[in-house]
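quick one
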Amino acid sequence: MPTPRTAIFPGSFDPLTNGHVDVIRRSARLFDRVVVAVLVNAEKRAMFPLEERVSLIRESARDLPHVEVDTFSGLLADYVARRGAAAVIRGLRTASEFSDEWQMALMNRHLQPDLETVFLLPSAEFTYISSRLVKEIASLGGSLDGLVPEAVAAAFSRRRAAAAHS
Ligand code: PNS
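structure w/ 4'-phosphopantetheine:
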């Protein structure tokens, strides 16, 4: 039996978008197991608390049997080594993202020489979606249809309702 191949898909996921889900689906077709790893970042203020981001990913990836959600802190390269993963997955929406991603991939390889980064292109219909724009649209009352999974849209609605009642 060959050793199962695990890939780590790391990120902030504040919040998960349909573009992320597309990359998770594509990764799940290539690897035996995909771990969506949410960065625990005490410095960066996130809109959604870490636990909520994790549960929104779990709910949105429910139908994907080989997908697991975890959190990590510290260096990604160390986490990948601890998990014995074969690769890190990064989604590339545009060519302009490549130079930062290239630098990060090579730095991670410098830290862990056998760490491979696999870049996946999301479906073209998702290339303009970002967590930052989704948050801006939600805060200005715009529609999130087609941009985020249902669970994430519901989480925004709950936040709006809570804000209206406070
Ligand atoms: O969703 P993002 O913000 O694009 O994800 C960035 C992430 C979490 C992949 C990156 O910030 C990261 O790996 N952070 C962990 C700390 C680390 O390893 N830094 C060195 C990177 S070369």
